[in-house]
Design a protein that fits this description.
The structure is a single chain. By secondary structure, the protein is an alpha/beta fold. It is built from eleven helices and ten strands. The strands form two sheets. It has a five-stranded mixed sheet, with helices on both faces. A five-stranded mixed sheet has the order 8-7-6-9-10, with helices on both faces. Strand 9, helix 9 and strand 10 form a beta-alpha-beta unit. Helix 8 packs parallel to helix 9. It is globular and about 65 Å long. The structure holds 5'-O-[(R)-(carboxyoxy)(hydroxy)phosphoryl]adenosine (KG4) and zinc ion. The site of 5'-O-[(R)-(carboxyoxy)(hydroxy)phosphoryl]adenosine (KG4) has 19 residues, from helix 5 and helix 6.
Length: 340
């Protein structure tokens, strides 16, 4: 296939309304993101109904802007890709409906994409040399997955969280120490002023599934620590709590990641998802991978948190395989990775 492939991609699974045009899977011509964070901040988290309504209001504007910035019209687009799961059903439906309407009107092929597949594929955008197979860690607000990327679009999950996702733990701890939503970036920033060894929080290990994760015990330990301080009338050093909590999360993610890479013999390791933009996490992985001679890949922060360029990157490989979705494509809030 010699002709250039231009994918118009749409992402609306949570609180970002996003559209992008991606050329041949790796060249981002536009990446428009309307973030609803300010809208949800007063509630301390994403309110699904409010998110759906805002997506409806913004989706056409964001898509038009993505085409304009790419200097393209629908006539030059090869296919339209959209996240159809997992995520919040209302927000997903807005993106899926918009994509289907465009495909119907402009007679374009439609490709439904798994949100986590998008996160993993974000690594292809800036790492032009990266090719499967490799091991990937997806750490977002809803997922913590250790995934073998066997080939483009072919995945095997070897570890996942038993309870809270890594990002969820960041958000809950941030709320407990009064940082507000979204917690991850705030804990990231505050941790730089704290001592990561000030408080010892637990690192969970699951005997029968060594690559699985559990963060609810850590979250409870932080809450107990805060309550204990309050009862004893001790002042809380929030920066120390943030840094010590963050280190506990990072220690587990890095240990599981590099142990799995070595056990399975991977020389390439990639991180993805919102939490992958955490500066201390990136530093810890870079060091651990370097020590073991493993090449370490990570997207720029803008491609770690939710965006549509990653959906366009994933859709390119699906398009080349001939995978198309029908106009009966529906939102699937609990879609499993690898499921069609
Ligand atoms: O991938 P994403 O944008 O959305 C989901 O698919 O969930 O991830 C959002 C999550 C939130 O929990 C947010 O707190 C976390 O990623 N996050 C971070 C950082 N930036 C975003 N966590 C830690 N450090 C960061 N710098
Ligand atoms: Zn995401």
């Amino acid at each position: 296939m010699n002709e250039d492939i231009y994918i118009l991609a749409i992402e609306s699974s949570c609180d970002e309304t996003a559209a992008s045009v991606v050329k041949n899977g790796r060249e981002v011509l536009s990446n428009v993101i309307f973030s609803q964070i300010a809208l949800h901040q007063v509630y301390g988290g994403v309110v699904p109904e409010i998110a759906s309504r805002k997506h409806i209001e913004k989706i056409n504007q964001v898509i038009t802007e993505a085409l304009t910035q790419a200097g393209m019209t629908l006539r030059e687009i090869t296919a339209v890709a959209v996240t159809y799961g997992p995520g919040l059903v209302g927000p997903l439906l807005v993106g899926v409906s918009a994509a289907k309407a465009i495909c119907f009107a402009a007679q374009l092929p439609l490709i439904g994409i798994h949100h986590i597949e998008g996160h993993i594929n974000a690594n292809y955008i800036e790492n032009k040399d990266l090719q499967p197979p490799f091991l990937a860690l997806v750490v977002s607000g809803g997922h913590t997955h250790l995934v073998i990327v066997k080939d483009y679009g072919v995945y095997e999950i070897i570890g996942q969280t038993r309870d809270d996702a890594a990002g969820e733990a960041f958000d809950k701890v941030a709320r407990a120490i009064g940082l507000g939503y979204p917690g991850g970036p705030k804990i990231d920033r505050l941790s730089r002023e704290g001592n990561p060894n000030a408080i010892h929080f637990p690192r969970a290990k699951i005997e029968e599934a060594v690559y699985d994760f559990s963060f609810s015990g850590l979250k409870s330990a932080v809450l107990n620590y805060l309550n204990g301080c309050e009862m004893k009338g001790e002042t809380i050093n929030r920066a120390d709590v943030a840094a010590s909590f963050q280190k506990a999360v990072i220690d587990v993610l890095v240990a599981h990641g590099v142990e799995a890479a070595q056990a399975y013999g991977f020389r390439k390791f990639a991180i993805a998802g919102g939490v992958a933009s955490n500066s201390a996490l990136r530093g810890a992985f870079a060091e651990a991978c370097k020590e073991r001679g493993i090449a370490f890949y990570y997207p720029s922060p803008i491609f770690c948190t939710d965006n549509a360029a990653m959906i366009g990157a994933a859709a390119y490989y699906e398009y080349r395989k001939g995978r198309r979705s029908g106009l009966d494509l529906n939102a699937v809030p609990n879609l499993k990775l690898g499921e069609r």
